[in-house]
Specification:
The protein is an alpha/beta fold and 382 residues long. It contains 14 helices and 15 strands. The chain is elongated and about 70 Å long.
Length: 382
């Protein structure tokens, strides 16, 4: 009987907690003589797992930025509260995170997901619940026009895939090694379609794949080596998977093959693994943002929260722009998703990325990739 009472009491506590969390979305408090309305904003990003470093850095940027914004927002009787949920760089986890943020926390606005798999996991749910998502990170072309409630400040990987295919098209025999997740599958498809359409004389002699989160790629690497390919497209997900793949490639002796990769390979750790192996590797990634104001802001965040080595200047800028645009619109228009959606669809904004205009599309217009190269163990602009 006592055990039954304990279970009942625990259930009641959970129900009351859920009710309390839901009420927070429309809560207000008295600060001095003013009534301040709290607006909850959800963030979906990988806080655990292989890509956690990106989620942790995004949190540093958002936390610092929101603290600064709230100093101004209180003058307009508003306060922003950020609620983080772990999307784990996975569609199913992101969908669960979305349901919690909307059903329990009652959020109307979401920043994220950081990984394309996360965004694809909840983008189809936005319109039914009238939730607005603004994203500074996800780049899969599959996200374009999935929802009129979704706005993405990242570059579109369709453009990156075309640039990679155009480089591969200079060779007769090419190979690919790809991870089996949403981002990498979409990138692989763009590259293969472009090669088929524009470069009929380029033959794909090895097209290898490995499971999401894989750790042993030696079999696939040996197949590519045996294919006598001239150039290899490296297409793993971000984080430890990319580093592990690079280390296993570096183990192969006397193998002279050119390499090209995406942002997942754009870090000095990989570049310095073995300069004989990775020298002259080409990376197609987001452009570096050369803005003294951004640099100054990043220095302040790093001094208070810690380094921002993983996201890079583009994604730091896109994160800040996402936060600033969303909070500015809420302060101007109130927390009406319909009003914020209309403004995002029709207006032009100015941010660290420059002029930002969606023109009723999912991705911001005019964002293209940039090229980098590994030289002497470092990443340089090409």
């Amino acid at each position: 009987m006592k055990k039954l009472l304990v279970i009942v009491l625990m259930f009641v506590i959970l129900v009351l907690s859920a009710c309390t969390d839901t009420a927070v979305s429309n809560s207000s408090e008295i600060i001095g003589t003013k009534e301040i309305q709290t607006v909850n904003i959800g963030v979906i990003a990988p806080m655990t797992g292989d890509a956690a470093a990106y989620g942790e850095e995004a949190q540093k940027i958002i936390d610092y930025s929101i603290a600064e914004i709230n100093k101004i927002a209180e003058k307009s009787d508003y306060k922003f509260n950020i609620i983080y949920e772990d999307g784990r760089c996975d569609g199913a986890s992101a969908s669960t995170a979305f349901q919690k943020l909307t059903d329990i926390n009652g959020v109307k606005f979401i920043i994220g997901g950081l990984c394309s798999s996360e965004s694809l996991g909840f983008v189809s749910l936005l319109e039914a619940k009238n939730i607005i998502a603004i994203n500074g990170w996800s780049s899969s072309p599959e996200l374009e026009n999935k929802s009129s409630n979704y706005f993405d400040l990242s570059f579109n990987d369709n453009n990156v895939g075309i640039e990679i295919a155009d480089e591969l098209g200079k060779y007769d025999r090419v190979s690919l090694i790809s991870e089996q997740n949403d981002y990498n599958k979409a990138m692989r498809e763009v590259v293969l379609n472009r090669l088929s359409e524009k470069y009929p004389n380029t033959k794909v002699v090895s097209d290898e794949e490995f499971i999401k989160g894989g750790t042993d790629f030696r079999n696939q690497i040996q197949k590519i080596k045996a294919s006598n390919s001239e150039i290899m497209f490296l297409n793993p997900n971000a984080g430890v998977t990319a580093v592990s793949l690079a280390k296993q490639i570096a183990e192969i002796q006397n193998w002279n093959i050119k390499k090209i990769g995406t942002f997942t390979f754009n870090n000095d750790e990989i570049a310095s693994l073995d300069t004989n192996v990775f020298e002259e590797t080409i990376i197609v990634d987001a452009a570096n943002i050369q803005d003294p104001k951004l640099s100054s802001f990043v220095d302040k965040i790093s001094a208070e929260k810690g380094s921002l080595d993983s996201l890079g200047t583009y994604y730091t800028a896109s994160t800040l722009d996402s936060v600033n645009i969303l909070t500015d619109l809420i302060l101007e228009l109130g927390d009406s998703p319909d009003d914020v959606k209309k403004a995002l669809s029709e207006r032009t904004f100015t941010g660290y990325l420059g002029l930002i205009k969606f023109d009723k599309n999912s991705f911001v217009e005019g964002i293209k990739g940039a090229r980098f190269i590994f030289r002497n163990g470092k990443v340089e602009n090409l």
